[in-house]
Amino acid sequence: MSTANLTRTETAARSAAVDLHRIRLELDVTGALDAANTGFPVTTTLEFDATTAETWADFLGEAVHEVVVNGQSRDVEWDGARIRLRGLVAHNTVVIRATGAYSRSGEGLHRFVDPVDAGVYLYTHDEPADARRFMACFEQPDMKAAITVVVTAPEGWETLSNQSPVATSTRDGAQTVEFAPTLPLSSYLTCIAAGPYARVSSEWRRDDVVVPLSVLSRASMAEHLAANEILEVTRQGLDFFAEAFDFAYPWGKYDQIFVPEYNIGAMENPGLVTFTESYLYRGAATRAQRQARANTILHEMAHMWFGDLVTMQWWDDLWLKESFADYMGSHASVAATEYTDAWVAFANRRKAWAYTQDQLPSTHPIVADIPDLEAAKLNFDGITYAKGAAVLKQLVAFVGEDAFFEGARRYFARHAYGNTTLEDLLVQLEQASGRDMRAWAQAWLQTTGMSTLSIERDADGDAVVVQTDPRPHRLQIGLYDLQGDTLVVRERIPVDLAEERTPVALPDADLVLLNDGDLTYAKARLDERSLSAVERGLSWIDDPLARGLIWSALWNATRDGELAVAKYLEIVVAHAPRETDSSLLGGVVLNAPSAIGHYLPESERADARRTWLDATWAALGGAAAGSDAQLIWARAFAAAAAFDDSRRLDVSTLLIGAGPQGLPMDADLRWVLLTALVATGHAGAEEITEEQLRDHTASGRTAALAAAASTPSAAVRAADWRAAWGDLTLTNDHLDATIRGFGAGGRRDLVEVFDVEYFSRIEEAWSERSIEIARRLVIGLYPETETTELVDGWLDTHPEAPAALRRLVLEQRDHQQRAIRVREAQGVLAG
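-> structure tokens emitted (831 positions)
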């Protein structure tokens, strides 16, 4: 195992022997303007007590030049990941001078050059263990310290960190900014940003507390910043959390910065939250997109308490921050913003992620066993986020909202600025609620999998709720009657379940909707009568949450091989054009082509794709001008047109601006349409160049790369393949674009020649590339063969491959095996 892959055992031993107090971090990024400079000088000073004569500091960079322990220079002993520290005494000051490496993968200190104005932008991203890419540190969450950051950068740049500046000096065109020390902070929460960022400033006030606010982006993205809307949600969130948690926002200022080429949605660095630029909408945005942005803002804000103020001791308890933040994102959206329907998106989209992850062989308890950092990296998944949040929603129903928040308040008061485990939270929730939290935790946090709920009736019509993998559930069963074509709710019956079979007094109804209100975490099936009612009346159910649960039930049954793909597509074509909730519609138009591409036999896909393409075109034509639905259907049509060229003239019509009235032809939609023409052989380099001249931005550059990579030529796809594996100059975004192009249009005939080679490359990529980049290669280039013979052979002959790599391969195999199984079931289901 590489020494970069820190284990839980060794880090626990280090924190037991080392008591860290303060860190001073000094970086000089004035050289970032010169592309020839691959690295930057960095000096880290660590102050700590020790009960051992020797330990190590973590650092991933270009070089370590000097190690000074208590004023004495020591030999540099650095293996590329760990710096040995010898000669320690009770109280120590260690100074490490090194050269860090600018990142192009979004890990550590990322450097980006804006093609619009050649502006250079820097930002850091650390989670779970990439602070060591720009500073020497003890890279584990339970070694918190006050961190003082000092940055020397070109004069005129915005220079930011977790705290506010306390001193600034200039000399020879450079500025040196020293920031106030932070409150005790884990290394992975350290954040720095520097560059000619555009800033919009404001403030939040509550009683005598004043928190400076700002929102920042690249200068060329400033027109898309939507600062007023972002700041409004920010103030609403701070109002809500200050009241709910009874603990004043502790981190001084609240900056939110939107950065390019970001690997994730956002990161909760206290005082300087980073977001992907994908949340800055260059063109039209649906309400669902704006709701998603608000949800993410509130998710990261919840982390200021859950995760930053109180931090898990080790990554086993990652859920202590991510599950709570995911729950709070929706809860606060409903309680404090205009997005009072946020639980609809959660039920339909977020929980779909959890259901998928929880059925993989790599599923794990919410409180997971995380032996090392590689495992931690992969556990930022649907279990930790969405299942954990869904289970917390069940917990709130179990103990009551008042007791839940009272337990949270006690938790923060007891453990502020410290580190915790599951037990610490359970104690507070138990005291606040008077409920037995151990049984609940065992049933929901320390087990894997999910229940599937269904209704059975005997000959007399008596009903039984059947659940696989039994757990305690508190839920509602909704009874709906058909009135003409409209399904109208008659009543909702509360039910407690614990056993495999639970008799329920359940009157007859056209639609019986299990888990109505989405109170628990389980897959719910529709009986035959309910399915018939849904086929007739789904569009006319008033409650969007109920519709979302039905869409979810239909999709789960389809991917489990219990509902024919053809039947699912019939329901989608009939009812999706009438769906008024943009979040639900957005999910459906993604699931339908996925069902075609994965779950239909190959012989049926071409016809199904054409039918779907025609359906998207018809729905686009029927959507109201300027509506969310019009935009969603336009995007769905453009995506579908990459697989079938029968409507290429309609694609061209949209591109010249002659589409339906009210449709906003923004740059992003134009690129999807043009890429569809390229992928089907009806456009090429000339059209791509022309479009890139029209959209001379970073997004345009990435889209042009993806479009060119989509050319339906064996030579181009071979070049995509070589670039993905071998071109180390590709940024994270450009690698993704290359991988998208490689698989564009579902042209297996152009890429199947590389199936065997894939398995010869992945282990080397895992050992030589960063986890972030290697993960994209392993997942994005996995061959969609008709059997699992190749992957089974690799798994059999590589039992000693890194556990995290085997996990990714096993997950892809499971997706592949599910698709094979569902395809084989279609004949039976159709019969």
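The mean pLDDT is 96.
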